[in-house]
Amino acid sequence: MKKLFLTLAATAVLAAGCGQEKVDTIDSGEMPVEVIVDVLTPKEVQPNEAVTLEVKVTQGDEAVDDVESMEFEVWESGHRDEGTMLDGELTKDGVYVAEYTFDHDGVYYMYAHTTARGMHVMPKHEFIVGHPDMSQVLEDNSSSSMENMEYGESTEQDGHTEHGEKSEEEHNH
Q1: CB-based contacts of 63: which residues, under 8 Å, 6+ apart?
Q2: pLDDT digits (tens, 9 = 90+) for 31-52
Q3: For the residues 134-152, what does the mean pLDDT come to?
Q4: Which residue spans within the chain are E strands per DSSP?
Q5: Of 15-29, 62-76, 100-114, 148-162, which gets the smallest average pLDDT?
Q6: Nearest in space to 83 (alpha carbons), one of 142, 16, 10, 161
Q7: What are the phi and psi torsion angles at 74 (to 5°)?
Q8: How many C-beta neighbours within 10 Å does residue 12 have?
Q9: Rounded to whole angstroms, how far apart are CA atoms 74 and 155?
Q10: Dihedral sign for Cα atoms in the order 80, 78, 123, 92
């Protein structure tokens, strides 16, 4: 009786799995191809001029024109809670843009929150706007918080880590 029950249970599990579409995951033994988000906007910009925030999204050699979500989060260093979220729009071949005007000199940051093909990628980009007095710039202690994410895998590029990111001060102690 026990063998019959185990055989029926195993058959039910196998039958349920046969109707599902194969997805590239580590579980299936195939490594998914990473979604890459390259920031194209220059690091140095001028205040009071419209700036095009621009990224190129690719997966392998393919431009990704079908992102599920693309939002640019922009804030002045030390003031992430006062930041702005802007929807990115596809212009061509995986390039997404939004317009933003920095209203005064300073150091600013941007996350390009990108959800595409089951992954969430959010590279961080620093802007030097005009000629800021660096002694007056607040340190930015913001982390790559998950609060703005809806779902999916998370990765971050440009040498920053998703979790356990330490400030320069913490690295020196």
Answers
A1: 56, 57, 93, 94, 95
A2: 889 999 999 999 999 999 999 9
A3: 66
A4: 35-39, 44-45, 50-59, 62-63, 69-76, 84-87, 89-92, 95-101, 106-116, 119-121, 124-129, 153-155
A5: 148-162
A6: 142
A7: -125, 135
A8: 10
A9: 19
A10: positive
Q: Is the pTM of this model over 0.85?
A: no
Residue 158's pLDDT band (boundaries 50, 70, 90)?
very low
For the chain, give me the number of helices (H) and strands (E)? 2, 12
Report the amino acid identity of residue 1.
M
The percent of residues above 70 in pLDDT, for the chain, comes to 66
Residue where the block lists tokens 């195993």? 10
SS (H, E, C) 62-92: EECCCCCEEEEEEEECCCHHHCEEEECEEEE
**What is the rounded distance in angstroms from the CA atom of residue 80 to the CA atom of residue 94?**
27
Please name the residue that has the structure tokens 């431009």: 63
User: CB within 8 A of 13, min separation 6: which ones?
Assistant: none
d(CA 108, CA 83): 10
Instruction: Decide: helix, strand or coil at residue 9.
Output: helix
